[in-house]
UniProtKB/TrEMBL annotation:
It holds the Pfam family Dus. It comes from Thalassotalea loyana. It comes from the Bacteria. This is tRNA-dihydrouridine(20/20a) synthase. Residues 18-326 form the DUS-like FMN-binding domain. Catalyzes the synthesis of 5,6-dihydrouridine (D), a modified base found in the D-loop of most tRNAs, via the reduction of the C5-C6 double bond in target uridines. Specifically modifies U20 and U20a in tRNAs. Its EC number is 1.3.1.91. NCBIfam families: PRK11815.1, yjbN. Gene3D superfamilies: 1.20.120.1460, Aldolase class I. Belongs to the Dus family. DusA subfamily. InterPro entries: Aldolase_TIM, DUS-like_FMN-bd, DUS_fam, DusA, tRNA_hU_synthase_CS.
Length: 334
């Protein structure tokens, strides 16, 4: 219990996080990110209650090193959500986040994701039943609106209702969701972002912790948002340019003693991780694919990516592959 309590205390600072991204932020990706930043909060990909309760695989496995790590749950049946929350707490997750932001058809058919913004009472029941079962925080990631339900009042009512069930932290993706006519990918660019709306929510609900997400790509922008809000979540930019995380503990958390690891150091730690993964029967590509962007911005970045793509699926591949790929970059720096 003491360990759990310590985790919660350490976890108070949600200033910066990497977004949940299906197929991207799996446990290998999160291990890689954690090597670069000790403090950034990491989210899992969305895991549905159905997968946890009825699935054959273990959808909750993670590396101990990943803490603080948040499980993002997809679902809307309060009983199933509570059951999964309890399982997640027992497995050591630091927090549970409910997906009220994903617009894909598959998600709507299962009645979870962004369509739940129209049912704040149901989300509220989920939060309530989850909180009755766990001590770790239960949070919500939402949009600013859905389809033509895009007024400020709609968002306000959603937050107001769900907060009453005990949700104290909302992460708001500052773009409304289109539930038909746009693919999830298109819906990450259109319609326009509205950051002011999220700022207004913080003004109206000052006691709540409000984080913002959507289209943020730099730490300068992050600092600007942090003047108005409690936290910033970045998704795609971190995935494309992961080495930015090496600066996060110093630049965002103000930890002047934080060690900024070199890319070379990260390569050698990840090579060990790949070797361990291979020894357990895993495939190097499943890890290396998340590292393609590590050298972006340097001469040789293209060669690095190409080497990994061409070689990580070879039968004899192991951790050395990363060092060989990085040699391409080193040669061009000389
Ligand atoms: C490949 C991909 C998968 C995503 N999967 C999820 C998901 O599982 N759960 C979720 O809440 N959002 C998901 N999102 C949305 C992101 O969490 C985030 O809200 C969105 O990308 C906007 O942030 P960004 O502009 O910083 O990328 C996904 C985004 C991408 C690019």
């Amino acid at each position: 219990m003491l360990i759990l309590k310590d985790k919660i205390n350490n976890f108070k600072n949600n200033r910066f996080s990497v977004a949940p991204m299906l197929d991207w932020t799996d446990r290998h990706c999160r291990y890689f990110y954690r090597l670069m930043s000790k403090q950034t909060v990491l989210y899992t990909e969305m895991v549905t209650t159905g997968a946890i309760i009825f699935g054959k695989g273990d959808y909750l496995s993670y590396n101990e090193e990943e803490h603080p790590v948040v499980l993002q749950l997809g679902g809307s049946d309060p009983e199933a959500m509570a059951k999964c929350a309890k399982i997640a707490q027992d497995r050591g997750y630091d927090e549970i986040n409910i997906n009220v932001g994903c617009p894909s058809d598959r998600v709507q058919n299962g009645k979870f994701g962004a369509c739940l913004m129209a049912e704040p009472e149901l989300v509220s029941q989920c939060v309530e039943s989850m909180k009755a079962k766990v001590d770790i925080p239960v949070t919500v990631k939402s949009r600013i609106g859905i389809d033509d339900q895009d007024s400020y009042e709609f968002l306000h009512r959603f937050i107001d209702t769900v907060k009453d069930a005990g949700c104290e932290h909302f992460i708001v993706h500052a773009r409304k969701a289109w539930l038909s006519g746009l693919s999830p990918k298109q819906n990450r660019e259109i319609p326009p972002l509205d950051y002011e709306r999220v700022y207004q929510i913080k003004k109206d609900f000052n006691d709540l912790e409000i984080s913002i997400n959507g289209g943020i790509t730099t730490f300068e922008q992050t600092h600007e948002h942090l003047k108005h809000l409690d936290g910033v979540m970045i998704g795609r930019e971190v995935y494309q340019n992961p080495y930015m995380l090496a600066q996060a503990d110093q630049q965002i958390y103000g930890d002047e003693d934080a060690v900024i690891k070199s890319r070379e150091q990260i390569i050698s730690e990840m090579a060990r991780y790949i070797d361990k993964h291979v020894a357990q029967g895993g495939k190097p590509w499943h890890v290396a694919r998340h590292m393609l962007g590590l050298c972006n911005g340097l001469a040789g970045a293209k060669q690095f990516r190409r080497y990994l793509s061409e070689n990580a699926s070879q039968p004899e591949a192991n951790g050395d592959l990363l060092k060989k790929a990085f040699d391409k970059v080193v040669q061009l720096q000389k």
